[in-house]
Write a structure and sequence with these properties.
The protein is an alpha+beta fold and 676 residues long. The protein has helices spanning 25-38, 42-72, 118-136, 186-199, 251-254, 259-264, 289-318, 326-332, 340-345, 350-380, 386-400, 404-421, 428-431, 437-443, 447-458, 464-472, 475-479, 502-516, 520-540, 545-557, 561-574, 579-591, 595-608, 613-625, 630-655, 657-666, and strands at 97-100, 103-107, 143-144, 148-153, 156-162, 171-173, 204-206, 212-214, 221-224, 230-233, 461-462, 490-492, 496-499.
Length: 676
C-alpha cells in the first residue's frame, strides 16, 4: 500500500534472481495454468489440476514452515536469526523482508507507523490477497500473477509470495513511488481495461506530477518481466475504499469495499478515491477527484442503508438452513464483517442475533489473544513455544472460565471493544453496566460456537477429547467453570494459512470427476470430500461462478437437488450471461425433467455462445428425445458437427493431428466447462 507521503517501491523490485528449477515456483505455476487452459478431455484436465494442487500445496507447506521460524525469531538480534532479513528490495509498508527457497516473506505489521494499528496493517495484507484473487478470477491469460499465501502465527501475519522475474527496470505500468511517476504501456493498458470492466472498477486519471489515465489503482504495478510476460504485483488497493472515517488514520488504505459489492454496483467506483493520488484539476467524461469521492460516498450510503437491512431480512429467513454460514452469507452480499453490528441492529431473530454476537466476540478475542502472543514473544525473545502455549491457555481460561479476572474482561474490556469495533453491536439493554454478555451467550448455550470460532480463526489445535467436549456441549463449560482448559489440552499453537484457494478448487474438481465413475461407499466418500473442499473455497470466494457450478454438480450427484438448484441459481445471479453456467443449469434441468426450464436455458446458452457445439448437440438430443421434434433436432446436430470440425482444425494447428483425433474421440465436453 502507499500513503500520501510515503511511496512503496515494490516488494519484488530489485529482487529478480536466477532460481533453481525446484524453487522457480513462478515458471512451474504459469506452465501448469497454460496447460490447464489448453487441456482436452477429462483425464488430461484432471491430471493438470493434480499438478496444480501439488505445486501450490508444496508452496503453502514451505511458506508455513519458514514463516513460523521467521516469526518465532522476530525479537532475536539479526546475527542470531536462522534466516537473515534482506535490505534494499523495496517497500516501506511492511518491515523486514526475507527470501527462502524462491519465496518472498514480509511482515504485515505497523513498524513504520503508516497505519493506526497492527490490526490495520494485517487488513492491508488481506486486501493484497483479495485483490490478487480479483485479478485471478478475471481469467485473462496474458496477465501473469504470483502465488500468494498469508500465514497467521503467534499474533503476527506474514505475506508469502512466489518470486517473479521482475525488478526496478521492468516496471511499465502504474507507480512504485507513491504516484510521483506513473507509467503506462499500450498492450498492458488494454488488458487492464478488460480486467477493470470485469472487476467493475473505474478508469481514471492519477498521478502527482504528470497524471496518466489508468485502469487500476495507481500503485498496482504492471511489469514486463525478463521472460517477456506481463506480471502484476501490489494488489492491496485493487478495490475502492468506503467513505473514510475521519477518526481513523489512513482508513482509505484498509477499509475497502467487498469485491461482491463492487461487482454489483450500478456505477463503477474509483480505487484511488480519497487516496491523494488524484489530480485536483483533471476532469474528463468519467469525472474528477470530487466526482470519484462523491460516488464512493453514495456507494457507502447504499451499503449501510439498503444492502445491510436487506441482508438482515434475508438471513433471518435462511439462518436455520443446514448450509448457513454467517461469514459466507455476509460476503456474498458484499458486506464486510465490520458491519456485523449493523446487521444485528436490523435483526429480530434470536438465533441470528446470537450467532452475530458470538462472531463479534470471537473476533475481539482473536485480536486480544494475538496482542497477548506478541507481548509474550517480545518478553521471552527466544523462539520458545511453551511460554506462548501457557499464554494461550491462560487467556482462554479468562474468556471461558469463572472468577474476578473473567468478570472484568467480559464486563469492561470485551464490551468496550465490541462497541468500539462494531457500530450498533449491542442494544440499549445490553449496553447497561449491569447487563452481562456472558449471560447472553450462556443462556443461548452458545459457548461451543464461541470456542469453535476462536479456535478456527486462531488455528489452535487441541487433543481430540477436549475438541469434542467443548465444541459440542455447553454443559462442558458448566462442569469446568473455574479453569476449563489445561496446558496438556493443547496439541500445538497451530497457525492459519489463507491463499488463493486454488488447492480447494482443484481438489474439489478432481474428487468430483472421480466420484462420477465410483460406486457405493467409495462414491459417497469422494462426494463428501468434494463438498468439503468446495465449501472451503466458497468461504473465501463466495461469488466464484465456477466453484458454485462445480459445487452444484457435487450436490446433484449426492441427490441433494434442492441445494443443487439453489447453488446453480446463485452462479447465474453472479453472471446471468455466462454460457457455461447456462449450459450446466440447462443440463441439470433436463435431467430433472423440467422441460420448460431446460429449453429456456439451452437457448439462453446458445444465444450467449452460438459456437458451443456441446450445447448445440445436447439441445438436439433434448428436442429429439423429449419434445419429439426430429427435424429441428437435425439442424442442431448439423450445427454441432460444423463447429466441431472447425475446432478440430484448431486442435490440429495447436496440438497436432494425433492429439486432436484423440481429444475428439474422448469427447471434450468438460474441457470447455472447467477452468480456473
Amino acid at each position: 500500500a502507499s500513503s500520501d507521503d510515503d511511496g512503496d517501491d515494490g516488494d519484488q523490485n530489485g529482487a529478480a534472481m536466477a532460481l533453481p528449477a525446484e524453487h522457480d515456483w513462478n515458471t512451474r505455476f504459469q506452465s501448469i495454468l497454460r496447460n490447464i487452459r489448453t487441456a482436452v478431455g477429462v483425464d488430461e484436465t484432471r491430471r493438470r489440476y493434480q499438478e496444480l494442487s501439488s505445486l501450490v500445496t508444496d508452496f503453502i507447506y514451505l511458506a508455513e514452515t519458514y514463516a513460523k521460524i521467521i516469526i518465532s525469531e522476530t525479537y532475536l538480534p539479526v546475527e542470531r536469526k536462522t534466516i537473515k532479513p534482506l535490505k534494499g528490495i523495496g517497500g516501506v509498508a511492511g518491515g523486514d523482508k526475507y527470501i527462502v527457497h524462491g519465496i518472498l516473506f514480509k511482515f504485515s505489521n505497523n513498524s513504520n507507523g503508516l497505519y493506526p494499528s497492527d490490526e490495520a496493517a494485517s487488513k492491508v495484507a488481506a486486501h493484497d490477497l483479495k485483490g490478487l484473487r480479483a485479478y485471478f478470477n478475471c481469467g485473462i491469460a496474458q496477465l501473469h500473477l504470483p502465488i500468494m499465501a498469508l500465514v497467521d502465527y503467534s499474533g503476527f501475519r506474514m505475506s508469502c509470495q512466489s518470486m517473479l522475474p521482475i525488478d526496478g527496470s521492468t516496471l511499465v505500468y502504474g507507480s512504485s513511488n507513491g504516484a510521483l511517476d506513473v507509467h503506462t504501456h499500450r498492450r498492458l493498458h488494454v488488458l487492464l481495461g478488460k480486467a477493470a470492466r470485469r472487476i467493475n472498477i473505474k478508469s481514471h486519471w492519477a498521478g502527482r506530477r504528470e497524471p496518466q489515465f489508468v485502469h487500476a489503482a495507481v500503485d498496482l504495478e504492471g511489469h514486463l518481466g525478463h521472460d517477456g510476460h506481463f506480471y502484476l504485483v501490489d494488489f492491496s488497493r485493487t478495490l475502492p475504499p468506503e467513505r473514510p472515517v475521519k477518526a481513523l488514520r489512513a482508513a482509505q488504505l484498509f477499509r475497502l469495499l467487498r469485491p461482491e459489492f463492487v461487482k454489483q454496483s450500478r456505477i463503477q467506483l474509483c480505487p484511488d478515491a480519497y487516496s491523494g493520488f488524484l489530480p485536483a484539476d483533471q476532469v474528463d467524461a468519467a469525472g474528477g477527484l470530487h466526482e470519484h469521492n462523491r460516488e464512493i460516498d453514495i456507494a457507502t450510503a447504499e451499503l449501510t442503508t439498503v444492502v445491510v437491512p436487506r441482508a438482515a431480512a434475508e438471513m433471518q429467513r435462511t439462518v436455520h438452513r443446514d448450509d448457513f454460514n454467517l461469514q459466507t452469507e455476509m460476503h456474498r452480499r458484499g458486506i464486510n464483517l465490520r458491519y456485523l453490528g449493523a446487521v444485528r441492529k436490523y435483526t429480530s431473530s434470536g438465533w441470528l442475533r446470537t450467532l452475530i454476537l458470538v462472531e463479534m466476540i470471537a473476533r475481539v478475542v482473536k485480536n486480544d489473544l494475538r496482542a497477548e502472543l506478541r507481548k509474550t514473544l517480545q518478553r521471552t525473545v527466544l523462539p520458545l513455544e511453551d511460554p506462548r502455549r501457557k499464554a494461550v491457555i491462560s487467556f482462554l481460561n479468562v474468556v471461558f472460565g469463572d472468577g474476578a479476572e473473567s468478570d472484568e474482561y467480559w464486563g469492561e474490556q470485551l464490551k468496550a471493544r465490541l462497541v468500539e469495533k462494531y457500530e450498533g453491536a449491542l442494544d440499549a439493554a445490553e449496553l447497561a453496566p449491569s447487563a452481562s454478555l456472558r449471560r447472553v451467550v450462556h443462556d443461548a448455550k452458545a459457548e461451543p460456537q464461541l470456542f469453535s470460532r476462536v479456535q478456527q480463526i486462531m488455528g489452535l489445535r487441541f487433543i481430540p477429547a477436549v475438541q469434542r467436549q467443548f465444541s459440542t456441549s455447553a454443559d462442558a463449560f458448566d462442569e469446568n467453570r473455574a479453569e476449563p482448559f489445561d496446558e496438556a489440552d493443547m496439541l500445538e499453537l497451530g497457525c492459519r494459512v489463507r491463499h488463493l484457494n486454488i488447492v480447494e478448487r482443484a481438489l474439489g474438481y478432481i474428487l468430483k470427476t472421480k466420484a462420477r465413475s465410483a460406486h457405493g461407499a467409495t462414491r459417497q466418500r469422494l462426494l463428501d470430500q468434494a463438498k468439503r473442499y468446495h465449501e472451503l473455497a466458497l468461504q473465501s470466494d463466495p461469488d466464484n461462478k465456477t466453484t458454485l457450478c462445480n459445487y452444484s454438480d457435487v450436490l446433484a450427484l449426492s441427490n441433494q437437488h434442492e441445494h443443487a438448484d439453489r447453488y446453480y441459481r446463485r452462479a447465474l445471479e453472479v453472471d446471468p450471461h455466462d454460457a457455461r453456467t447456462l449450459f450446466k443449469y440447462a443440463d441439470y434441468c433436463d435431467k430433472q425433467r423440467r422441460r420448460a426450464d431446460a429449453e429456456h436455458y439451452y437457448l439462453a446458452c446458445l444465444e450467449q455462445n452460438p459456437y458451443d457445439d456441446h450445447c448445440a448437440q445436447a439441445y438436439g438430443y433434448f428436442l429429439e428425445e423429449k419434445l419429439f421434434d426430429s427435424d429441428t433436432a437435425e439442424q442442431f446436430f448439423r450445427l454441432a458437427s460444423v463447429i466441431r470440425h472447425a475446432r478440430q482444425q484448431a486442435y490440429v494447428s495447436l496440438r497436432g493431428a494425433d492429439e486432436a483425433a484423440a481429444a475428439l474421440s474422448q469427447g471434450a465436453q468438460e474441457q470447455a466447462l472447467f477452468s480456473l
